[in-house]
Amino acid sequence: MSKQLERLAEFEREKEQREARYYQQAQQNVNQQKQKLTSLEQYRIDYIKGIQQTGQAGVTATYYQQHLSFVGKLDKACEQQMQVIARAQMAADQRKQMWLKQQQKVKAVTLLLDKKKLAEQKKEAKAEQAMMDEFATQRFFRAKRSPF
């Protein structure tokens, strides 16, 4: 029984490590998506500054309208990236919950295994004590019988 519990504990620990890796990967994905959003937003700001500088020198309405249209596309791209981040964050949260649940399983199996080992140790100690008591009793009777 103890060997089975040890194998189960090892299996659950491996599963917990795997879930931890999956959570870490999901969290890295969230961070990468946030970096993409930051880059997009920075590009948008730089682009608008460029339009403003060019606009001071004087541009046609068509030219200005084209650039504003592109800024609108950048805004839409930022919104889409925020949605990607939200989905990635939800996936990371789910992975975290799976990891935490697996940690609880590992703790439960480990606790059960520890209790089982403690019970076996107590049983062995009791058997050893009984054997020592028997040995002491026999020695006592032998000493009593023997005149030397």
TrEMBL record:
rRNA-binding in keyword set: no
PANTHER family: FLAGELLAR FLIJ PROTEIN
Pfam families: FliJ
Chief site of localization: membrane
Cell location: Cell membrane
InterPro entries linked to this entry: Flag_assembly_chemotaxis_eff, Flagell_FliJ, FliJ
One example of a Gene Ontology biological process annotation: bacterial-type flagellum-dependent cell motility
Family: Belongs to the FliJ family.
Membrane-topology descriptor: Peripheral membrane protein
Domain of life: Bacteria
Protein name: Flagellar FliJ protein
Sorted UniProt keywords: Bacterial flagellum biogenesis, Bacterial flagellum protein export, Cell membrane, Cell projection, Chemotaxis, Cilium, Coiled coil, Flagellum, Membrane, Protein transport, Transport
Coiled-coil regions listed in the entry: 1-43, 108-138
GO CC annotation: bacterial-type flagellum; plasma membrane
